Amino acid sequence: MSPLQITHDATTTGPVLHVDGELDYEYSPALRALVERLGLGPGEELLLDLTGLQFCDSTGISTLLAARQHAQAAGAEVVLAAVPPHTLRILTLVGLDRVFTIRPADGTA
């Protein structure tokens, strides 16, 4: 298993978190804690770049939903970028592709 590595960038539209490794039961709390510490404002966008995501279990999906809830409470939005095919398949199967804004790797709509 690959430990979760998260790097953070600030942009004019809001924070970008680059998520690499395993987003599972063991490592998801790190992402959840980081998102909860973010100071999001109304109209901002929290972009989760999942380019390096190798695995995502149900705890990881719950963490993505918690990030969305945190952003919505602040009047912000969560965008998932570069979602790997295996994770996109899961999101689609459970209907979360209609809940999240999902963008390709370059971050365009």
From TrEMBL:
InterPro entries: Anti-sigma_ant, STAS_dom, STAS_dom_sf. SUPFAM superfamilies: SpoIIaa-like (SSF52091). It holds the Pfam family STAS. PROSITE patterns: STAS (PS50801). Residues 16-109 form the STAS domain. Belongs to the anti-sigma-factor antagonist family. This is Anti-sigma factor antagonist. The lineage of its organism: Bacteria, Bacillati, Actinomycetota, Actinomycetes, Kitasatosporales.
